[in-house]
Amino acid sequence: MHMTRIHFHESFYDMILQGEKTQTARIEEPHYPLGTAMADFSDGKSLPIEIVEITYQTINEMSLSAVQKDGFNTKDELWNALLGFYPHLQADDLLMLVEFRCIMNKK
Predict the structure, then answer these.
(1) Its domain of life (predicted)?
(2) What does pTM read for this prediction?
C-alpha cells in the first residue's frame, strides 16, 4: 500500500507547518483517501498530514472561512492563486477541497 502524496508549492510549507493552511483546493486530481498522507513541497521538503475531509464546491459557493482555511484572506486572493496553477479554471468549475491537519511527531 502506498502513501498518499499531495504536492504543494514550497511557499506554503511554513503555513502548513504552523496550522495556518489546513485546506487545499484542487481540480483535475484524483479523489484522495482520508487518513495519513504526505505533503510534498517543490523544494524537496515533506510534512506528514492527515486528510480529514473532502468536499466539492465552486469558488462562489465557498464561505469566507473555507477560503481562510486555504490560507487566503479573500475569494479574490484564492481565485488569483488558483488561476496561477489552473489558467483555464472557470468560476462554475467544482473545486475539490481537501481539508487536512499537519501531524508532527510528538517526542
Answers:
(1) Bacteria
(2) 0.91
